[in-house]
Amino acid sequence: MAGVTSINLVEHALLVSIQDDITDTEILELQDRLSTKISENRVDGVILDISALEIVDTFVGRVIAQLAGISRLLAADTYVVGMRPTVAVTLVELGMYLPEIRTALSLTHALAQLRRV
User: Fold this and answer.
1) Residue 103's domain spans which residues?
2) CATH number reported for the structural domain that contains residue 49 in this entry
3) What is the pTM of this model?
4) How far apart, in whole angstroms, are the C-alpha atoms of residue 103 and residue 105?
5) Do strands 13-18 and 4-10 pair parallel, antiparallel, or not at all (unpaired)?
6) pLDDT tens, residue by residue, 67-80
7) What gap in Å lies between CA 54 and CA 65, rounded to an integer?
8) Which of the chain's termini has less CB crowding within 10 Å, N or C?
9) Model confidence pLDDT, tens digit, residues 73-103
10) What is the dihedral of CA 15, 89, 87, 92, to 10 degrees?
11) CA distance between the termini of the chain
């Protein structure tokens, strides 16, 4: 999978790195892998690292929402880390409202938030 570098277990969370060139096929594979790993590891959260994304469109916004939805249904909170200011502005301009997703400045901040839950 060229678009996803990895899914790694960090403490009680899964860290998912999403790359700029992710495709529809890779998203479907990622959804399957992620749901399996959440169930197998009984994690508290999923941390989506989008620091590699320089721009976003509705496809990427939909991907983030779908991954968060899967995580939520499997009782795991979702945090997005590494969001660039231009990405945040674009998501707002596209009308992408993602209420089930929390944001954190870094992996460290996301893990600290998960520890408090």
Assistant:
1) 4-116
2) 3.30.750.24
3) 0.88
4) 7
5) antiparallel
6) 899 999 999 999 99
7) 18
8) C
9) 999 999 999 999 998 898 889 888 787 789 9
10) 60
11) 32
